[in-house]
Amino acid sequence: MAKRLTTFILIGLVLGLVVGWGLNTNGDAVLGFFKQIGWAKPQTDTAAFLKELAGYFGIVTTIFLRLIKMIIAPLVFTTLVVGIAHMGDTGALGRVGLKSLGWFICASLMSLTLGLALVHLLQPGVSLGLPIPPATADAGIAKTGFDAADLVKHIVPQSIFDVMATNEILPIVVFSVFFGVAITAVGERARPLVRAAEAGVAVMLQITDYVMRFAPFAVFAAVAATLTEHGPKVIGGLAYFMGSVYLGLGLLWLLLIGLAALFVGRRVFDLIRYIREPALLAFSTASSEAAFPRTLEALDRFGVPRRISSFVLPLGYSFNLDGSMMYMTFASLFIAQAYGVHLPLGTQIGMLLMLMLTSKGIAGVPRASLVVIAANLSNFGIPEAGLLLVLGVDQFLDMGRSATNVVGNAVAATVVAKWEGGFEAPEPVAIEPPHAPSHGISGHA
After folding, report:
1. Labelling 320: which of 67, 98, 368, 404 has CA 20 to 30 A away?
2. What does pTM read for this prediction?
């Protein structure tokens, strides 16, 4: 099923490109036809019509992403509780947590540094030579700076039901850790809860299997909607900037996969094969959250113990967004170059550290990378209105950085598993519902 699903997603991606591009290119003719049959008002202009048409495509993608979000909270909670219960002691939990955070910090610094080096090497903004806009001009994007109180409020939930309702992963992780540690402390009396959580994992993964059958349609709709509304012109206008970002993301993939190869050797090719579907899904939908359940299954198939993957992956959603990290550096300095703002190297390094720190408090914010960039531009004398330069193509860039985030978190879980004693054979019985056919979730080839 996994191979067929990947094929169907690719077909949906290509069809979305063809349909979206065709509708945008022939917008006047399509609008004329709709007016003739009475499905469009006579006074409707082409731009408004294409935007409305893209909105209809967007309904399909919205349904799929809402189905995914329906799964995330119970899946994170049950898998994490089971993982901690199987660790056996709090010492192992603390050890895994420290190793995970150590990897996250190193990977973030690597991503930020790569973005800094490439933007200096490629100089994507220098040729624009834009005048400095008025001080009152901004991009209309909400800004958020680093606030310790807000970060604590975000991390520590006051109600587990509240954060589950809003799918805030990091607070769910915090509660799940407390719950799992308490189960370990209680011992045999809590065994029914562990069995219930294990059954919950099996059920949620079966639901994931049902939801993922809808993915090719969602991918088609997402790509078609974007190209129908914006067309190829928005890509061409900033083609060099986009190409530079994707070059950076490609190099980051090579670095991450190369690091994984240092730990797992030739098995890295198996890892690539297993995570290609969740990475493609994240790319197509511009949502790494949509790929979370499939990434968990891919790591199961590779042999990463569930107690490791169920802890590292949710934590990585807040602390290990490698693609977003590289993009934030690249975009910030691209805007500075476009306006001719010179920043000393020490200031640029300070910006990198500030971007890394600020990004930890905005998990779950839509277009989080843009929000973080907006918060930091004014701190370093860069016009905030420069965000308008990248806003039009951000959807296309979000696709690449979402896929990179998936790869980065999969590599992180793999490396931590290797540090913790290696891998194990997949255990399909533990996650398949009773009487499931042999091609069930964990048995996908």
Report:
1. 67
2. 0.75
